[in-house]
Backbone:
């Protein structure tokens, strides 16, 4: 809008300069022509001839558009349609503007006049001018038109800028909305194009081609990992079953080795099952059959399940659960998420450590928090721990496969929530935010959640 307004201002300024300047130049040329004519008459006929010519011209111009005043040395009028010399005009050659009013013998409305003084030999003074009232009126008209033009220009520029910005913002908003849905897991969506071939259509086509390529690469990687998991899970299951059968018949001296082999096979099967489950979650993108879940009761059940494991390490499990909090989603997946978080907290917290499990309502979300006093996660690794098989350096000596938080991240994304990792000083605090639903009214007594007492 500013650039457009400056351009129009320069254009209107040029028009004003060209129009008003041309009219002023024409006025000056007219005065110059009259001075030249009077000078010629003076050369031919002298002072008396000049007086006669001035009187003749005054008689031919009753409206007084042309102004004349021929005076002696003491400014006594000899001829002309002005009665006395203007006080603003100095008795020397040059151009002047002066007010034309009754003090000069002017009989009309006060105007502005423009004149030039010509010194006649012998000390006589000749003033020749023009009434420039019409010129000043035209200038004011042009100035008023320019002012109105600038106002209209600014209004149109503002309106046009708003319309263009809104049109651009709508196109960008469509791209943002589609991109957000794609980032949430719906990789089948594509950015629509209007078919105009403009920059936005080119951007949409490029982004769509990039998405197609990304989906193609992801599908290839997913198929490879899925095929590996499927192909290896079956022989691993057979191997485990054979080892378990061997464990029954083997002698006492080999029983521990076979039992360790069975445990390793179980770990491998658990890893492959977790990989397949994460792949299915990321491919689905959303909960297939969501139901209303009493998350408070789910937290109590998970805490009761892992209470014994915490007691074995002499850890204290504290609960702070707000009753009756409801979410909509998959009960099994949410329980698996709780189990992974509690399992990690117990695993990475030393003996005599403290684990805090809380569930509270925060605005439109339910916040589930699991905080421990364990080894924690460095800030530079907080985003990386959601990657498959990624493990923090100081936790590599502990059992695990690096898929627990990957599964948690996939489940939270499916439920349209978010996850935050922060320092618990010492230890790690994991906060899950899930969209809340209204509390159930009239819940039967048998379904009321019960509180697990805090340990310690």
Residues:
């Amino acid at each position: 809008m500013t650039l457009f307004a400056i351009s129009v201002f320069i254009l209107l300024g040029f028009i004003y300069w060209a129009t008003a300047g041309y009219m002023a130049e024409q006025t000056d040329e007219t005065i110059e022509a009259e001075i030249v004519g009077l000078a010629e008459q003076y050369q031919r006929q002298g002072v008396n001839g000049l007086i006669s010519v001035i009187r003749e011209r005054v008689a031919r111009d009753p409206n007084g558009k042309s102004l004349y005043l021929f005076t002696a040395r003491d400014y006594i009028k000899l001829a002309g349609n002005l009665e006395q010399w203007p006080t603003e005009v100095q008795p020397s050659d040059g151009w002047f503007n002066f007010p034309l009013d009754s003090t000069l013998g002017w009989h009309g409305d006060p105007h502005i006049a423009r004149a030039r003084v010509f010194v006649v030999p012998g000390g006589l003074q000749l003033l020749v001018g023009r009434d420039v009232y019409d010129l000043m009126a035209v200038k004011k008209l042009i100035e008023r038109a320019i002012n109105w033009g600038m106002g209209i220009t600014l209004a149109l520029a503002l309106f046009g800028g708003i319309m263009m910005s809104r049109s651009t913002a709508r196109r960008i908003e469509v791209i943002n909305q589609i991109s957000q849905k794609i980032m949430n897991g719906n990789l089948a969506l594509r950015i629509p194009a209007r078919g105009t071939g403009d920059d936005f259509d080119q951007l949409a086509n490029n982004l769509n081609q990039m998405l197609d390529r990304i989906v193609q690469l992801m599908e290839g990687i997913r198929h490879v990992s899925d095929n590996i998991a499927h192909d290896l899970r079956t022989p691993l299951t057979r191997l485990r079953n054979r080892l378990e059968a061997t464990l029954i018949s083997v002698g006492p001296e080999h029983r521990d080795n076979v039992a360790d082999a069975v445990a390793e096979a179980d770990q491998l099967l658990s890893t492959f099952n977790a990989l397949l489950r994460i792949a299915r979650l990321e491919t689905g993108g959303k909960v297939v059959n969501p139901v209303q879940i009493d998350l408070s009761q789910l937290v109590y059940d998970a805490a009761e399940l892992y209470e014994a494991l915490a007691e074995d390490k002499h850890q204290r499990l504290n609960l702070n659960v707000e009753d009756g909090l409801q979410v909509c989603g998959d009960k099994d997946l949410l329980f698996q998420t709780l189990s992974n978080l509690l399992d990690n907290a117990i695993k990475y917290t030393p003996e005599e450590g403290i684990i805090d499990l809380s569930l509270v309502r925060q605005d439109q979300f339910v916040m589930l928090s699991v905080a421990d006093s364990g080894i924690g996660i460095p800030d530079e690794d907080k985003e990386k721990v959601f990657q498959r098989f990624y493990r923090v350096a100081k936790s590599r000596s502990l059992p695990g496969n690096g898929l627990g938080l990957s599964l948690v991240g996939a489940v939270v994304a499916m439920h349209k929530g978010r996850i935050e990792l922060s320092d618990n000083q010492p230890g790690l605090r994991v906060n899950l935010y899930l969209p809340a639903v209204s509390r159930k009214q009239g819940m039967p007594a048998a379904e009321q959640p019960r509180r697990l007492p805090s340990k310690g």
